[in-house]
Design a protein that fits this description.
single chain, alpha/beta, Rossmann fold, 2 domains, seven-stranded mixed beta sheet, 11 helices, 30% strand, globular, tRNA/tmRNA (uracil-C(5))-methyltransferase
Length: 360
């Protein structure tokens, strides 16, 4: 591990340890990232000059003015993305149908070797574009997805299928182009194993809020009798259901509800046709654990009150500040018994955390 990476990781550990010291937190369990080639996603602007085009990103100078930075390689991205970048750019430059008005290029890679490239344009995509893009897709053995204002062109698929190893089992995940997925797949595998370890084994049921595409849901299902997972975004619910079926798991139900809506349903304040149509009877579950992986804004007050009713809370956080704020309420009924730091985003200020709270 180089000194520069270790220094930035040490700084994060120091920051989290100091920020949460008031909660008498246990020793921090730190999960490092590979130093290079850890991101499975990369997005670039395409910068056009009179006689050239190249991948670009931006940074602000001392006057807060945006400066164009040419990107020929991107060491933090997966090696497959770095290998493809020059080949793709050369092919795009050679074909005016594909290069004209090209605005952005997005890469989505997997550990198993699949690659989806999204080409984003400022002009409408034509039949000629589809023919050229299909040819390029076959030449480079990649999936290509086209997008412009109000238009999406799917040549084969708009997703890749990732494989993540959790202990001795491999799980397959459909990852859709426009949906959120964990960008650091190797650290994600460590997160999944950590969550399973702190969950231990229960003869009762798990409630999961904000389940996304079922990233945590699938491996956690091995630790509980049944799992009820909730997610509002339709594309994520679809992906989660696909993933459940693909992995031959039969003890998970997915409810298309927000955390706030689930709280209303669980408290008997409101009935939802979506639950009835999915054949979900909340009252049939016996929950002892709740798992949450909320957005950066954290958890609303009513849902926090709901969480306080469970024996155990497993909380994955992408924002230490909202986690700290939520703990002001949760610490009244629960104590932190496990605390982990996952370095999902090396060389940035972002910190991913995991805590286990158990009822006092």
């Amino acid at each position: 591990m180089t000194s520069s990476y270790q220094q930035q990781l040490d700084a994060k550990v120091e920051r989290i340890t100091a920020q949460f010291s008031e909660y008498n937190m246990p020793a921090l369990n730190v999960f490092a990232s590979p130093e290079n080639h850890f991101r499975m996603r990369a997005e670039f602007r395409i910068w056009h000059t009179e006689d050239d085009m190249f991948y670009a990103m931006f940074e602000r100078d001392e006057n807060q003015q945006k400066q164009v930075i040419r990107i020929d390689e991107f060491p933090i991205a997966d090696q497959s993305i770095n290998t493809l970048m020059p080949k793709l750019l050369h092919a795009l430059k050679a074909n005016p149908i594909l290069s004209t008005r090209l605005f952005e290029v997005h890469f989505l890679a997997t550990l198993k070797g699949e690659m989806l490239v999204s080409l984003v344009y400022r002009n409408a995509l034509t039949a000629e574009w589809e023919v050229a893009a299909k040819t390029l897709s076959e030449q480079l053995d990649i999936k290509i997805f086209g997008r412009s204002r109000g238009q999406k062109v799917i040549l084969t698929d708009d997703y890749v299928v990732e494989e993540l190893q959790v202990f001795d089992r491999t799980y397959q995940y459909k990852q859709i182009e426009s949906s959120f997925t964990q960008p650091n797949a190797q650290v994600c595998q460590k997160m999944l194993e950590w969550a399973c370890n702190v969950a231990q084994h229960s003869d009762q049921d798990l409630l999961e809020l904000y389940c996304g595409n079922g990233n945590f849901t699938l491996p956690l299902s091995t630790r509980f009798k049944r799992v009820l997972a909730t997610e509002l975004a339709k594309s994520s619910v679809y992906a989660a259901q696909w993933n459940i079926e693909k992995n031959n798991i039969d003890n998970i139900q997915v409810a298309r509800l927000s955390a706030e809506e689930f709280t209303q349903a669980y408290n008997g304040e409101r009935e939802f046709r979506r639950l009835q149509e999915a054949g979900i009877d909340i009252t049939s579950y016996s929950f002892d654990t709740v798992f949450v992986d909320p957005p950066r804004a954290g958890i609303d007050d009513e849902t926090l009150k709901l969480l306080q009713r469970f024996e155990r809370i497993i909380y994955i956080s992408c924002n230490p500040d909202t986690l700290h704020d939520n703990l002001k309420i949760l610490s009244k009924t629960h104590k932190i018994t496990q605390f982990a730091l996952f370095d999902q985003f090396p060389y940035t200020h972002h910190v991913e955390s995991g805590i286990l709270l158990e009822k006092i």
